[in-house]
Amino acid sequence: MSIAASVAVRPSPCLRVLRAGLVASVLAVGAWCGWPLLAAALASLRREVNCSHIDISGVGEIRLTVYQQQWRARLLDDCTLWPGVLLLHAELADGRRLWLVLLPDAVAGPDWRRLQAAIRAQLQKN
């Protein structure tokens, strides 16, 4: 059984604070250990994908709107669904893979539960 959901996603303030804390930690370690480690650590930090809309149809087709472009995607098996966070590993139609980190503050209240239910149903179907 598939559950349809169409959810607008906004940048999560909590995720931005966590990312800033991670960058500050990396800078502190880099300053303490030396600059080559700092450069390598900063290069390893990847920019988050800015998804603005997720559509899951009743038949399980997933469309992501990322940077004003729509992409068809499928969820991979290594997604993590917790009550307070969704770590979605998606493969786009062109073969690229991306991670989406969604916290409850990125989605309106009732949409969060509907999105969780739709993603759970999609992953059980795979």
Question: How would you describe the overall organization of this protein?
Answer:
The chain is of the alpha+beta class. The protein has a domain at 5-12 and 49-125. Helix content is 38%, strand content 31%. The protein has 3 helices and 7 strands; from the N terminus they run E-H-H-E-E-E-E-E-E-H. It has helices spanning 13-33, 35-44, 109-125, and strands at residues 5-8, 51-56, 62-66, 69-75, 80-82, 85-92, 97-102. Strands 1, 2, 3, 4, 5, 6 and 7 form a 7-stranded antiparallel β-sheet that branches. Strand 2 (51-56) and strand 3 form a beta hairpin. Helix 1 (13-33) runs antiparallel to helix 2. The longest helix is centred in the first third of the chain and has 21 residues, at 13-33. The model has no long low-confidence stretch (mean pLDDT 78).
Could you give a quick summary of the protein structure above?
This protein is an alpha+beta fold and 126 residues long.
Q: Biggest β-sheet, characterized?
A: 7 strands, antiparallel
Give the helices and strands as they follow along the chain.
Answer: EHHEEEEEEH
Report Rg.
Answer: 17 Å
User: How many beta-strand runs?
Assistant: 7
Span between N and C termini? 11 Å
